[in-house]
Amino acid sequence: MLKYIYNRIFFVALTILVLLMDVYYEVPIWVYPIIYLAYISISFYGSYFIQSDFYVKAHWHGDRNKKAVALTFDDGPSKQHTDKVLEILHREKVKACFFVIGKNIQGNEELLMKMLEEEHIVGNHSYEHNFWFSMKSKESMIADTTRCNQLVFDIIGKQMNFFRPPYGVTNPWIGKVVRNAKFLCIGWSIRTYDTTAKSKDAVVRKALNGLNNGDIILLHDWAPFTIDALPEIIQGIRNRGFEILRVDELLNQQAYV
Questions:
Q1: Which helix (H) or strand (E) holds 117?
Q2: Claim: this prediction has a pTM higher than 0.70
Q3: CATH 3.20.20.370 for domain 58-251
């Protein structure tokens, strides 16, 4: 959040300075759109890359000195896919974090309970996961995330502490939502792009290439090639000498409050 504030202060001060200069010197008109474009570009970067910590502090990796990583799955639960992901994780004795969408829980309550029974954890990924989520008012976002939290609490009796914003997009309003709810915002350091991948091998490569201590890996339990890629990802992580921890263990943070 401080980066966002400092950015605004800098560009406001710069604009005032140029306006003052324009009183005594003729400043070229093109200077103003360049300043505006620079401001918009930096703001977009901060919004799109959750790792920038621009609008809100995001936990996107663990201890870089510890040879361990975490698997996270977004957008479930999915009746067609999540159970298969859970079967693989159970077989491989791996615990993960599922960032669930509230509207996807209804009719899939047993999958949520199965996550809990098999010692996985769940985080808030909004209720609607609307494409325009980041454009909503702060009040609408609070209502949305609160609805998701309440639904999960009614099923498993636990209040989620972790939040991952839809699409990983942040802005000043999302920052306020996170602080208002006292969420821990969870990002990632490795994005597999499994939702747009053309093959299982592409997902595996994205997950394993450049794997580093403390990495948090982003997957989606509904994506076309995730189920086929998951066993190879797990084996590849272990072959490289990494331990697979739940993200709460990796970050040493409480998943529930």
A1: helix 109-117
A2: yes
A3: yes
